[in-house]
User: Fold these one by one.
Assistant:
Number 1:
Amino acid sequence: MSRPHHFSAGPAVLPLEALKKAQAEFLTFADTGLSVLEISHRSEAFEQVIEQAESRLRDLLAIPQDYHVLFLQGGASLQFAMLAMNFLHQHAAYIDGGSWSKKALQEAQKWQQTHAELRVDTLWSGKDDGYAYLPDDQLWQQLQDTLDPGLDYIHTISNETIQGIALQRDAESRVPLFCDMSSDILSRPVNVGAYDLIYAGAQKNMGPAGVTVVILKDRLLSKVKAHVPTMLDYRTHVEKKSLYNTPPVFSIYMLNLVMEWLQAQGGLDAMYGRNQRQAQAIYDVLDAHPDFYRGHARPASRSLMNITFTLPTPELEQRFLAEAAQRQLMALKGHRSVGGIRASIYNACPDDSVAALVEFMHAFHRQH
Ligand code: PMP
């Protein structure tokens, strides 16, 4: 059976090479005679997996030595609460850039409701403009100039998966900067040193669901609040190297294989080039027929990972999805909260999937 072209926003396509390798060693892993699913997370074989996953991630992202890399559970959604529970002492500010960063903000606000001494501000909101862009360099600079220098942190997002908008460059900040990179981590080189805490669910660019990567600066650990429950305290996972309790072994194992694949592709510079090329091919179709394919993102904030657009009528969108499915172009429906069409083209999306989509979009436009 051939693989369909799959544009899911996550869990998303994984590199076929990584899936095949997992298949080949599924029953007997690393001369143990057992599946990786059956061995102890404290066995030497698994320790090698988690160490390799960390070292490959460090290599790919050029993570500085004074940062910790954690493999946690609970998804990026748990990080929304966990980072506030650990680091919100007095005052934090949030970029409200779209559906996911809004959730992060709401989670901090919820925490604040039972902790009256805390202050949670919206530093900037894209809501009134329909979440069609994220701050550019100039706006980012203006926001920096207004910041309370005593802020515990500001929280931003690099890519809004649902709206299909992205920061085009690393954000920079005078106060600790936390960033949700769930949907574009490893899609381009980033300056990790510009952030104090980065987190990302794995199920888009890193592997299967079930593991969440957190990259945090060592000096932050001294600021962890007292009385955070053990499992929610970042220090627990730093001290125990993500092995305080049983970690999601299979997800970490798969993540390691995806990191191996990424290195073999030439790392993040190569991935970035490919991602730009693929995204441009689809945006070129939107730009060629702007009355028909109506891009949601302002051009200066276009995401390389999630391309969102609407068609002139809901009926045409239904037809688009149905005819696409006939050509094995799957999972193109926009998120239920915003509708329209969304093509997610993460790192592992093959060139021929993008080519097939582009060809279909031209044909559909001609026909309708
Ligand atoms: N942040 C972003 C940017 C996301 O795209 C998602 C999931 N799609 C989340 C957070 C939530 O992630 P999880 O499902 O791992 O909790």
Number 2:
Amino acid sequence: MSRTLTVETTPYDDQKPGTSGLRKKVTRFQEANYLENFVQSIFDSLEGFQGQTLVVGGDGRYHNAQAIQTILKMAAANGFGRAVVGQGGLLSTPAVSHLIRKNEAFGGIILSASHNPGGPDGDFGIKFNAANGGPAKESLTAKMFARSKVIDRYQILDADDVDLDSIGTSRLGGMSVEIIDSVADYADLMETLFDFDAIRTMLAGAATLLFDAMHAVTGPYANEIFGKRLGVDSAHIINAKPKTDFGGGHPDPNLVHAKTIYDAAMKADGPDLAAASDGDGDRNLIIGRGCFVSPSDSLAVIAANAHLAPAHSGGLSGVARSMPTSAATDRVAEAKGLACYETPTGWKFFGNLLDSGDITICGEESAGTGSNHVREKDGIWAVLMWLNILAARTMSVADIMADHWATYGRNYYARHDFEEVDAESAANLMRRLRERLSSYPGTETDAGRIQTADEFSYFDPVDESLTEGQGIRLIFEGGSRIVYRLSGTGTVGATLRVYIERYEPPDGELDKPVPEALAELIAVSRSEAGIERFTGRTEPDVIT
Ligand code: G16
């Protein structure tokens, strides 16, 4: 017989959810009651979940399975009626979003630190997604944080662990626990959205896909969808076995950490499409033969071509991008007469617009693209969308990009990350920029005259909430921009992100190397913010 225990605890002061949930070192999460405190703070911030369904899963990183056992016992003790859990504790973030919606669940708990490294010394993370399948809104995460600061007890069932590996239903106190196939429901959803016949036919011909699952959660999804359902040779789905430490790698689908597929794609006989996803399967990397597609451009191309996929054959209702994402998508929206929204960084800000039907497609510069099929960004979805576009247009990725820029112009774009800088120095840098905002308009720089300068805030047209302090923008005459903001996903010090963008019209020079096209703006981005003075850094750690 299991019984409910009420355990006394003391608060931690660092459980403020960031851009996407609470992310800390694994070792922090292993401290006494650290996870329990946060889970109870989630439950204490929710109302009306008694007897309801909770979806639980994670990206398989170190500590995933132990954390799930704790969460299930706490969910049972707190009165949930049913838990739906991916086999082995594995569920990609978009799959959780889909399962919440499909099961009409109260919500879900996702365990992931996304693209951050895993293993005993790596990172861990936890977030709550609501009944719409999307990440908790700011108002709810604020409640969780407030609760975490005063929490003094939590409830947990004193019971044996659940067998996470065997599909089937068991009981945990008054709660039923269903262990389900991690992939099947999600794969079925994908088949309803895209023209699998056309993609299969294309891939059975000369066209090739190379997919890197980075030893993270998308391996089983890629094997089922690309392998079994679309006929891709298993040799072309690499690093497909999920590992608790991602094979010692860094599951960030960028040109540094997915270098193998980048190198393959740059060869004359490389794959037509090389792609990767991250730790929890929501980010994507798209590379054509000889042609890297930036996430901002990928969003714009998808907005321009989504009607070629069955799910969007009737057209789009509108599109949205996060503020630091380039304005390439705005050009498409303008040409097609679509509403276009600019939101703060964080997928949670797209939720209301997707729920209200104001937008169908959205995306971010941070390798995220998605649609109204779920309420998370979706890596496999983005790859399938590109495959669908390639199958319909029978053009190479490079030709699609050239055609896109010739139609809409090109937004040259780069993001420079200064990682693990001293948090106070980074805050001072931002404060100084903020203080100087009113003096910027009219200032002449080597990159042109600054027209406006502001700190981005967002008024949500659906729930009328206001979110302030979302990044400093210097906007130049002609539309060039420099944006500064501090990341909300790091676990050590602060990460300063500098986003640099310049628009080149369709009849301009469209094929310059990006660093050359942005050279003057990059120099101004460093000097105006005093990056070296505040951070001691002369060059960014990562450029994407
Ligand atoms: C999360 C959020 C994204 C955000 C990204 C980067 O992604 O879901 O919306 O763009 O972090 O955020 P920041 O610039 O604050 O580090 P993921 O894939 O890490 O969950």
